[in-house]
Amino acid sequence: MLKKNFAVYAGFAWCIAFSMITFYWSSGGMLGVKTLGGIIYQKALSGDENFLSLVSLTGYIKLAGGLFLLLLLRDWPGRTGRTLTFLALICGGFLFLYGFANFTTLVLDSAGLLNLHLDGYSHKWRLFFWEPFWMLGGILFIISGVNLRRNV
What we know:
By secondary structure, the chain is mainly α. It contains five helices and no strands. It starts with 5 loop residues before the first helix and ends with a helix. The model has no long low-confidence stretch (mean pLDDT 94).
């Protein structure tokens, strides 16, 4: 049972961990923010209330993603199962493509083909952690959807 639903549980943990760090940042916490670099880091340093509200909203979206994945643990009949499968695959695709697109731009920046205005510290963190982390979340959503589809 755990092996069959591993991607759901791992995706849920991914969403919870990601939402918790996001809520920490939205409350003004600064640990790890420098790894993001660029305008995100500048806005966090400034304490811009509108920006922090937006960060908080993204935390709720990430939390909702985790709760959505828990829905995939139940056997859903017909149309409901197909809809949940479709949503999991679409969400997973977007998460993966978001991370992959950012990863690609960072590689192009490393090659001197783009200038993202990121310091070396945040560039490395985003290239080797944050963007692969997004892609991992996408893969977990996709595997969860594929596993549900097999049961529908």
